[in-house]
Amino acid sequence: MSGGDGAHEPGLVAEAEPSKRADVRDRPASLAASSLATSRMRVLAHIHTFNDADIIDGTIAALRAQTRPVDGILVVDNASTDGTLAQPLVRHATVLQHPENRGTSGTVYTGMRFALDHGYDWIWVFDADSAPEPDALAKLLTLYDSFPEQLQKQTAFLACIHYNVQDWVEQHAGVFTARGMKRVSPPPEERLYPCHVVIWSGCLYRVAALHEIGLPNPDYVLDWGEGEYGYRVMKAGYRGFVYRDAVMRHNTRGHTSVTVVRKKVGPARLPFIELAPIRCYYSCRNPLYFALYDAAGQRFRLFLSAARRVFPLALNFGVRPNSHGIHIRACLRGLWHGLTGNITARY
């Protein structure tokens, strides 16, 4: 993609024209509380997909049900083979299809590039297994409209609070500290809190800020791309917030990509993590690479923080070599590439 002429980046197939700008006069009365300037802002809803035929229509339906309508829906597909793009509601979206699986970071890169090229003011990012509540976008934009002008200029993103549908427990964001990264634990009455790292899904990014921050690094592919990008947001002097009144349901399939099983080891039954080999590779590589090569400061602290996550993950499979050989090899390769700085390798 280049300029604003609708041209597309090599390796992408466009399957629909971008949505036309919606007329503010046609929008519902719920926008009356927002300023005219905010209501005129163009919001692109982005969904990234890979073999999501069973859930994509639900995500699109949730976006089309917003009380403050989005101005366009973009589906960036990672070469799905299950008929994802043939689902009925996909006709309401612009589709860009990668010729191969570029992971979440690759699709978010493509989506943000599209938003920049086509003059959107915001891009609202979603996994295919996420569904915002109908008033989520209205609440995020009304919140932004309530900010003082200086804070508006400093804001890079506003994020929904998300709940996994399995347990309906709030999943909170993270912040970088002198001791590495830690998860925020806000009191119930704190409805808005600042953060540095939040999952891509449900996050509303201000496109004007992207011009200075830049686009995500597509080489992160899966896992920790949000962390690397959140770090760059912070270093560029911008701020991000989670708004707990704007709600998103996550993992709408009914299960997460990470599962915990209990196995008998001697007299005890111990918990073990089960994770796809591709996720093992990137979950081991990316945090180490970030700490050692992308972080501008506190590298030792960030490395220790990363090591506390990735080495136990590798050990989790290492103690079960008979049934998890492919997982062990993925973890070891990821650890090696993270330590040696090979971010361009792929699983």
Question: How is this structure best described in words?
Answer:
With 347 residues, this protein is α/β, with parallel strands linked by helices. It folds into two domains: 238 residues, Spore Coat Polysaccharide Biosynthesis Protein SpsA, Chain A; 82 residues, no CATH class. 34% of the residues lie in helices and 24% in strands. It is built from ten helices and 15 strands. Strands 1, 2, 3, 4, 5, 6, 7, 8, 11, 12 and 13 form an eleven-stranded mixed sheet that branches. A two-stranded antiparallel ribbon has the order 9-10. Strands 14-15 form a two-stranded antiparallel ribbon. Strand 7 and strand 8 form a beta hairpin. Helix 8 runs antiparallel to helix 9, helix 8 packs parallel to helix 10 and helix 9 packs antiparallel against helix 10. The protein is globular and about 65 Å long. The N terminus is likely disordered.
* H-E order: EHEHEEHEEHHEEEEEEHHEEEHHH
Remind me, CATH topology of the largest domain?
A: Spore Coat Polysaccharide Biosynthesis Protein SpsA, Chain A
Number of strand elements: 15
**What Rg is obtained from the alpha carbons, in whole angstroms?**
20 Å
Overall CATH architecture of the largest domain: Alpha-Beta Complex
Q: Extract low-pLDDT stretches.
A: 1-10, 15-34
How many discrete structural domains?
2
Mean of residue pLDDT values:
89
The amount of helix comes to 25-40%
User: Approximately how much beta-strand content do the residues carry?
Assistant: 15-25%
Total helical elements: 10
CATH classification, class level of the largest domain:
Alpha Beta
Shape: globular
Distance between the termini: 26 Å
Biggest sheet architecture: 11 strands, mixed
- Given helix and strand content, the structural type is alpha/beta
